[in-house]
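Letters spell out the chain; backbone shape is given numerically. Take this protein:
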Amino acid sequence: MRAQMLDNGDLRITQTFDYRLESRGTPWRQMFQQYTLSSDRLTTISDISVTDLTTGRTYTQDTVHSPSGYGDAGWDSTCAGHWYIADITQSESHPDPFDSELDALSATAVGEPAQTKDVEIGWNIPSTRSAKSMRIELAMTWHGVATAYDDVVALEWEPFSALNSTPAAHSPRASANRTHGHGCTPARRARRRALTTGRCSSP
């Protein structure tokens, strides 16, 4: 992981995930990360890019597609090679569209009640039965991560959630059975919630 503080106080983050996908009868199709936006420490996420480092393919943005709604050929021709960002505050299984600019939270001052919103960033890989290694790079800009006081600007950044104890699991949109999978890098535990479980999903 690389993180760079920009001149305007935003944080540019680049993460690399190395997945090991074991054969299990149904293909792997979708991976995602979930983040909690908060008006006092992370107002929105923008400038997202997703690259398959194994093949060199750069993914393009699309809307959310459920892996269970396609066969292998349909998924690979329609959905694979795209990433999405969605609002899952109300429902993970029925996400709402999210626009990084229009749907951003307004920053709140220290001591004011914070507003929150949950978002999901995911990427659709070609239908894959198994893979010893699949390396994906996710780059993004986090906004509103610094708090300005009269004499100092404070930044407390801990990107991994205490909830992030599952290396990988089936997508809830694909299966109600959240059995453990393989391949997502296990995350450290931390005090503040910024990022929840990264998951691999299947039909």
Helices lie at 72-78. The radius of gyration is 17 Å. Confidence is low (pLDDT under 50) at residues 162-199. The first helix runs from residue 72 to 78.
